[in-house]
Amino acid sequence: MKKDEHVVVIFPHPDDEAFGAAGTIARFRKQGVPVTYLCGTLGEMGRNMGNPTFATRETLPEIRQQELTNACQSLDINLEQLGYRDKTLEFEDQDRIATHLLRYLEKIKPTLVITHYPGYAVHPDHDAFGAAAIEAVNRLNLNQRPDVWALAIKKDKEKDLGEPDLQFDITDTFEDKLAAIVAHKSQASGILGGLNQGPASLDQIVKDKLSHEAFYQWSFNEV
Amino acid sequence: MEKIKARLIQDYLNQFVDRPVYIHLETTNGAYATHHNREAYNVGAFIRNAQVTFSQAKISGDETNYRVGLKTENGWIYAEGLRDYQIDQHKRLLLAGHDDQGRLLVTLELSLQPFTN
Fold first, then answer.
1. Contact at 8 Å (CB) between B82 and B67?
2. Domains delineated in chain B
């Protein structure tokens, strides 16, 4: 571990951290690196209500808040909730979100930021929050600027972006990732079910689909 | 939520007639419809905390597909595909339809107080 290393993860929804980066996050924690999750919303507008259904549109925010707390405890990471509303991030002022995120970055002074790759992250909230996160990092002085690892989700992303610069087999932290996913109880079965293409057990689906994590190293073009 | 009982829901709807009511109306097929199926595309709409007054309210259909229509001064509010309901502790009437994996497809909610935003 390098001195003063600190990873900040910036995603909009409770469970983005679990599905997208929990294996990598767990690796950093095993190395003793502090990790802070800046979570944009409570996923209030998610359509997964548990299976069988146990949430309603009105109880979902509170349920997901608790699940998020549980997942972060399970991953042993700090949590900051930024209080935006699910599905609305792309309509907020990007400058203001960037300023909001910058306040956290100036305080935490991360050495690495993990966020979504704008334009390649499928969900409009992912794209908008990723863009704001990168804007926030860009506003830091060069000598204070952390690395940025960007998570792309879009199919055929390699056509435009090439192969991800960072590719991790996260088998060694897979159990930690699975625990984080399962902590998001209202979401886990629905989303994992969506990945289910055959008779394999849930564990096997997760293992096959989620035992690999990959990121693009963001390059800031200096003028 | 429980399966809709039409007469019970009709009684509750009647209690909201001619009073200022906050509504949440939403339909969605999820943010990943296109991602999972190139032939599909994302469709969704929601309106939250619109305040309306309606002079008539009726539930119609059967357990496979209940519909609710609210007749307002200048138009209508309509939702289809409702199967489940809950009266919550704030006396709000929550109506919804879910797919076979419990995912929300449509919801219509009525409240005398604003919904949390």
1. yes
2. 2-111 (2.70.180.10)
